[in-house]
From TrEMBL:
Signal sequence annotation: 1-18
Species name: Flavobacterium johnsoniae (strain ATCC 17061 / DSM 2064 / JCM 8514 / BCRC 14874 / CCUG 350202 / NBRC 14942 / NCIMB 11054 / UW101)
Keywords: Signal
Pfam families, alphabetized: Beta-lactamase (PF00144)
Ranges for domain Beta-lactamase-related: 41-322
Name of this protein: Beta-lactamase
Amino acid sequence: MKFKLLAFLSLLSGSLFSQEMNKKIDEYINYIETNNGGIGSLSIYKNSQEVYNRSFGQDKLIGVHYNKNTEYHIASVTKMVTAILVFKLIENDKLKLDTKLSDFYPEIPNSKVITIKNMLEHTSGLGNFAIKDGVVWVTQKVSEQEVFDEIKRQGVSFQPNEKVVYSNSAYLLLRMIIEKIYNTPYNKIVEQEIIKPLKLKNFASVKSNPKNTFNSYKFTENWTEIKDIEYSNVIGVGDISSTTKDMNILINNLFQNKLVKRETLEIMKPIGKDEWGRGLALYPFKENIFYGHSGDVLGSHSIALYNEKDKISISYSTNGERIPTNTFIEVLINIIYDKEFKLPEIK
């Protein structure tokens, strides 16, 4: 088994073993597609080269026009981009991890003790502006002032560093801080600092008005479109759209230190067995450790992962989910590492 794994890791980009592995993955995707188990796209990189790319299920969307460049709403994978932009400012001495939120927004409760580091790692105590009175209320366009007021109204549920609770509000405020320092809208900053340097062709923040994007769907007897959130309400938090290939280019460049320095990347990563770092999360699949970020909105789900030891990255997006993303990825990783697996149940 050990020899077989080493053979795979060394020859994945070679023709013979790659064909065998791709066949196994194709069989898995065929099972999903044949049984209406989902709509999506998958990209796998090894040693910075794409070794697998496939889309599935889209031909079952009636009246929907798409091509290989059609983008998915990647939801909170956007937070990884926002964190990268924060750390670029830190590297350029325009911001510090211990900078207080009150330096920018003193009207936010507890802002005198909440730091940039707290906001990046979800230890700030700030809440989730997207849910008001138990309901997702950002499905219709609202003003930024309304969102800001909701963040203030929710306040904090604990003191900084007391616990870790995922906070959309913290990342929205980080985006606003980035815009203040650059004196530029978020979409233009993403273009300048991410898209142009990496030559991304299908990657955009919502205010850049991407036209070629998938909507979200659910399956009853057929795939039917559903109303998702209004992405202009979640800029810097969950608004970016991308292909899986461009997500893979992004995360590969991040781990090759082409976006931030090596020491910065280490700060971004979780410490030990912590789930959340400062812009990157830990995804352990038994002995195989990946870092990255996932994202979920009402109908679209994405994940971008990188394994440093084996230099394998996986990017996956779905706009019609019947198999949970984590389950999809777990089976895929078992296939890649030649482990036993069971095909997931399609509900």
